[in-house]
Specification:
nine-stranded antiparallel beta sheet, 12 helices, 31% helix
Length: 356
């Protein structure tokens, strides 16, 4: 039985003008992608010209919860824009205005000089701080935290331990170096701590109050309890990747659980400014290259593969994705829940784009 959930706009003139979405063809693409070797299940939600569809295949069904991973950074950015609008901080504030000495001291050392006090909120949000990435960057033993999780299993880190790990890694350039950016989960861990300092709330409550409740996202939440088995299983190659303690530690850089439907609702709201006014920066500008073909801006990515249109949004290390394609008026969210082959999700997206 096809795993398709359909919602059509009640605005009939628009629906009549819209080019029909080839739902059967998209479902076949998803079904074919599930090979039981690399992809065990897929979720896709898409919206275009008043038409919204939700798909599932393999071991996943529309409505299933999954880790959206680094797409959480876009949610963190949305909270930050609201705090700016409320006058609680500015993008150009130094992080030393909000973080204790224990966090700042030795945070950013480059060529023997400390730049920690030169880092601004903007630098963290746009990945232009030059700080290392505690999750993917390799240490002097040529091992990253991800490598550790894959080889030795689950672990848990506090915020202070994450900062200590960040300090043990090499910084990339002085904050705000012209034209330079480096993707770092550490930036968004720091933003989360600053947000908590300003609001006096946990990140779970922050997301609930600033995003989930306003957008009526009832299935979305921040993962805090390692015994929580609601999110769909993640895989590394053919093996189940069970790292619940680490997932609970990610918080503001990668800890949100959602559904493709609710992630789609958030993406549309974020791109259309529903959560904040024009006081926010133009989130479709300010791009800097992080690694080909990806650029990073104000908490979101932009990229263009050969033969594909520009896409704006974010992705996660587990094959989660949330992208807006301006030239098509298309919003696309979902996951393949596979850590080992991130390129697979873009092959899947490319096949979907050929049909719509």
């Amino acid at each position: 039985m096809k795993k398709i959930c359909l919602m059509l706009s009640l605005w009939l003139p628009l629906a009549m003008l819209a080019q029909p979405i080839p739902v059967d063809q998209i479902q076949k693409i998803l079904d074919k992608s599930v090979d039981g070797k690399r992809i065990f299940g897929t979720l896709v939600s898409l919206s275009k010209e008043g038409q919204t569809y939700h798909f599932g295949s393999g071991n996943m069904n529309p409505g299933d919860k999954y880790f959206i991973a680094s797409i959480s950074k876009v949610y963190t950015a949305a909270v930050l824009f609201q705090l700016i609008e409320q006058g609680k901080l500015s993008l150009d504030d130094s992080i030393q205005d909000y973080l204790p000495a224990r966090t700042l001291n030795g945070l950013h050392l480059f060529n023997g000089e400390e730049y920690s006090a030169n880092i601004t909120i903007r630098h963290l949000l746009t990945n232009t701080s030059g700080l290392p990435d505690y999750f993917m960057q390799k240490n002097t033993q040529k091992e990253s935290l991800l490598d550790y999780l894959l080889s030795k299993g689950d672990t848990s880190l506090t915020f202070d331990q994450i900062i200590d790990l960040t300090k043990s890694l090499a910084c990339k350039f002085p904050p705000g170096s012209k034209g330079k950016a480096y993707y770092s989960d550490s930036n968004f861990q720091l933003l989360g701590k600053i947000i908590q300092q300003l609001t006096g709330k946990s990140m779970a409550d922050v997301y609930e109050d600033y995003i989930f409740k306003p957008l009526r996202l009832k299935q979305s939440y921040l993962y805090n309890d390692p015994s929580d088995t609601r999110p769909a299983t993640m895989y590394y190659k053919k093996e189940v990747l069970a790292i619940p303690r680490m997932m609970a530690a990610f918080q503001s850089d990668g800890g949100i659980v959602s559904t493709s439907e609710e992630n789609l609702r958030f993406l549309k709201a974020h791109m259309n400014g529903e959560l904040f006014s024009e006081k926010k920066p133009d989130i479709t500008t300010g791009w800097n290259k992080i690694y080909s073909p990806f650029q990073y801006g104000y908490g979101i990515m932009k990229f263009k593969f050969p033969g594909m249109p520009d896409m704006i949004g974010h992705a996660g290390a587990n094959g989660s994705f949330a992208y807006y394609i301006p030239s098509r008026g298309l919003y696309l969210t979902g996951t393949i829940n596979q850590i080992a082959k991130p390129q697979l999700v873009y092959k899947l997206i490319a096949k979907i784009l050929e049909t719509v």
